[in-house]
Design brief:
Shape: globular
Strand content: 5-15%
Number of domains: 1
CATH class: Alpha Beta
Bound molecules: ligand Z5A
Radius of gyration: 17 Å
CATH superfamily: P-loop containing nucleotide triphosphate hydrolases
Distance between the termini: 21 Å
């Protein structure tokens, strides 16, 4: 219905390798949009606060072992359990800045060798982002930033494979931003892109679904 579309929020997703700056930039975008008077929330996946999120968190911390397919489906389930809340927030006019989404799910699992189409399948029907911001950084450069932590996947060799999978997933609608630039320069570019997207959604751009 046109009236609710006119005031809907935008679904904005930040993607990129570990240490590419997603968390820093999503905080800055949150403050920026709040400052302009928009209703906005910052979300992240995995959402470690749900039961499924707890299983994911334990896996990432190397406290449990799971088959690659199983953990893939848990990451997906973690998005599905937030889908209806996501839709109602967007329809009521709240913009969501989301740190990692389905593309992380597909990139990380296919980097382990799982079939990419199999990885996409459980993501079908999730809400499609209005804007994907890819923070582009060579894995070697990202590794220089503060060093990796001790979580699973935080290794250069694996991040190189993830980077290749992100390249396969990219489509022309993604906005690729050079994440090697100083934080303020990245922020400036992101702000412009986000403002355009928020404006388009307020003007009636309709919500769509992933991978369809
Ligand atoms: N995963 C998955 O397998 N399947 C899925 O479906 C999903 C995720 C959703 C958890 O991610 C892991 O789960 C992740 C993918 C996998 N594994 N890995 N790798 P997470 O969200 O908990 O962790 P992360 O995304 O990797 O977050 P991060 O380490 O916090 O990175 P970040 O958010 O991109 O970067 P940051 O915290 O903003 O910045 C990192 C450092 O760089 C920090 O010291 C900054 O001050 C510095 N920085 C940032 N920007 C700059 C610039 N421009 N210049 C210089 N220094 C900078």
């Amino acid at each position: 219905n046109r009236q609710s579309n006119e005031s809907r929020g935008a679904l904005i997703v930040l993607e990129g390798l570990d240490r590419s700056g997603k968390t820093s930039q999503s905080n800055r975008l949150l403050s920026f949009l709040e400052g302009l008077g928009f209703s906005v929330e910052a979300w992240r996946f995995p959402d470690r606060n749900t039961c499924v999120g707890g299983m994911i968190s334990s896996y990432l911390a190397n406290k449990s072992e799971l088959d690659d397919h199983t953990i893939h489906l848990l990451f997906s389930a973690n998005r599905w359990e937030k889908r209806s809340l996501m839709e109602s927030k967007l329809k009521s006019g709240t913009t969501l800045i989301v740190d990692r989404y389905s593309y992380s799910g597909v990139a990380f699992s296919s980097a382990k060798g799982l079939d990419i189409e199999w990885c996409k399948a459980p993501e079908i029907g999730l809400l499609a982002p209005d804007l994907v911001l890819y923070l582009d950084i060579p894995p070697e450069k990202a590794a220089e930033r503060g060093g990796y932590g001790s979580e699973r996947y935080e290794q250069l060799e694996f991040q190189q494979k993830v980077s290749q999978q992100y390249h396969i997933l990219r489509d022309p609608t993604w906005q690729i931003v050079d994440a090697r630039l100083p934080m303020e320069d990245v922020e400036k570019q992101l702000k412009e892109l986000v403002l355009d997207s928020v404006t388009a959604c307020r003007k009636g751009k309709s919500l769509s679904q992933l991978w369809l």
